[in-house]
Design goal:
With 432 residues, the protein is mainly alpha-helical. It is built from 17 helices and 5 strands. Strand 2 and strand 3 form a beta hairpin. The longest helix is centred in the C-terminal third of the chain and has 35 residues.
């Protein structure tokens, strides 16, 4: 592995791409530590020291790499773009024009990307406004005795903060596109990877040097390695459906007669179902933040939904993950479209007639594969959370199985891209 990385850096073109990607990631981390204009940095640090790290603030700050709780320029992180991308994909189901653009190829994809950018900026304005309003109301840092996290509560200061955070989101979006175009790997995924990985060392050190001790630190590391092994095994697994193409004469040339396969991953939906489930579970928690802590319904939400070790919370979390795994797979993989494309090029599954029977067969296979895939997602999401709570280190761990899934998935895809570029230059790749 190390020798392969050394060969990658010895290749001038690939070295430039890797260094460019690393430079963008460094700039992203700098922006995550740069306070937004109008923020009283000293008071914010005092409030952070008094916060419960297992609360909602820590969950929302995860995908921004700690920038949200610092009220930094990059406080919103990449989440507005992710949300906008998910919304645009879901709109393909209900708006025929979006589906037509998706089928048009590169030009249609460029148009959908433009819509995603506009929606990202709109969501960034809404989210930055809600964050600032929450800070001014004192609900952002609950229980903090120090007030005035914003230097001046004038309209101009608030407008400047909204503009700065929204511009930060636009800059992050641009960073991601630059990495995708000129660097290595998917830019947006790598920025999420950077945000999550940035909190890993401090979390591990807080266990070893805190009340957890080195014993719980060793158990935690062993559990993380076990989950990583499970994620790598499942993410690399796939069901290959054989496809045979009939021979056909075009002009004076014979085409077809080849055999290939359709690779179907066990986890087609990726980490999207976990993000959807976590977002839905956060809605009642966010609403409860604005209520009176002594009210009955607020206490019920805090005990049964906000607590990560509550039975109802874990049950709803697992159920929502399984539901969204089937839902998102149905959106992203269309058996009828795949069957029609195969039929138009003379392809067929051996033993299955082309057309409608092929679509029904693909739908049957997808349903069979998605069932264990959704169970796997639920297990990966719940095992670390339950285990960390049992060991009483949950407050020190800022992430769970979903974050491990993102880190491993992005790492595998990036390594595959580096490997493919090495193989194009006749170098030995990472995998043997």
């Amino acid at each position: 592995m190390l020798s392969a990385f050394a060969r990658a850096f010895r290749t001038p073109d690939l070295r430039r791409k890797l260094l460019f990607t690393l430079a963008i990631m460094v700039l992203y981390r700098v922006g995550a530590a740069l306070p937004a204009p109008g923020v009283n940095f000293k008071n914010v640090q005092v409030c952070l020291g008094s916060q419960d790290e297992a609360g909602l603030l820590n969950t929302l700050s995860l995908f921004s790499g700690g920038a949200l709780e610092q009220l930094a320029v990059f406080a919103l992180g990449i989440m507005p773009y992710i949300t906008a991308s998910i919304i645009v994909q879901l709109l393909r189901v209900v708006i025929p024009k979006f589906e037509m653009l998706h089928k048009e190829g590169q030009s249609g994809t460029a148009k959908l990307t433009q819509y995603t950018r506009y929606l990202t900026i709109g969501l960034a304005i809404l989210q930055s406004t809600s964050i600032i309003v929450t800070v001014r109301s004192g609900q952002f840092f609950q229980g903090c005795a120090v007030a005035d996290q914003i230097i001046e509560n004038s309209v101009w200061t608030i407008v400047v903060m909204i503009i700065a955070m929204t511009a930060g989101t636009g800059l992050i979006m641009w960073f991601g596109e630059l990495i995708t175009e000129h660097g290595v790997g998917n830019g947006m995924s790598l920025l999420i990877f950077t945000s999550i990985a940035a909190s890993f060392p401090s979390a591990m050190w807080s266990i070893a040097g805190g009340s957890g001790g080195y014993g719980k630190f060793a158990i935690t590391m062993a559990l993380i390695v076990l989950v990583i092994g499970l994620v790598v095994f499942v993410e690399q697994s796939q069901r290959r459906i054989p496809v045979q193409y009939a021979k056909r004469m075009v002009g004076r040339r014979m085409y077809g007669g080849t055999s290939t396969y359709i690779p179907i991953k066990i986890n087609i939906a990726g980490v999207i179902p976990i993000i959807f489930a976590a977002s839905l579970l956060q809605v009642p928690q966010v609403i409860a933040q604005f209520g009176n802590a002594d009210t009955g319904w607020v206490r019920w939400v805090t005990v049964h939904l906000a607590a990560s070790d509550a039975t109802l919370h874990l049950t709803l979390y697992a159920g929502l993950i399984i539901f969204f795994a089937f839902f998102y797979t149905a959106i992203t993989f269309n058996p009828d479209e795949v069957a029609d494309n195969m039929k138009s090029y003379g392809g067929f599954v051996p033993g299955i007639r082309a057309g409608r029977p092929t679509a029904e067969y693909l739908d049957y296979v997808i349903t069979r594969i998605t069932t264990p895939g959704s169970m796997y997602l639920a297990i990966v999401a719940l095992i670390p959370t339950v285990a960390f709570n049992v060991m009483d280190v949950g407050r020190n761990i800022p992430f769970g199985g979903s974050s491990i899934l993102i880190i491993v998935g992005v790492g595998l895809e990036t390594v595959k891209q580096i490997q493919s570029q090495l193989e194009q230059r006749h170098y030995e790749g990472f995998l043997r």
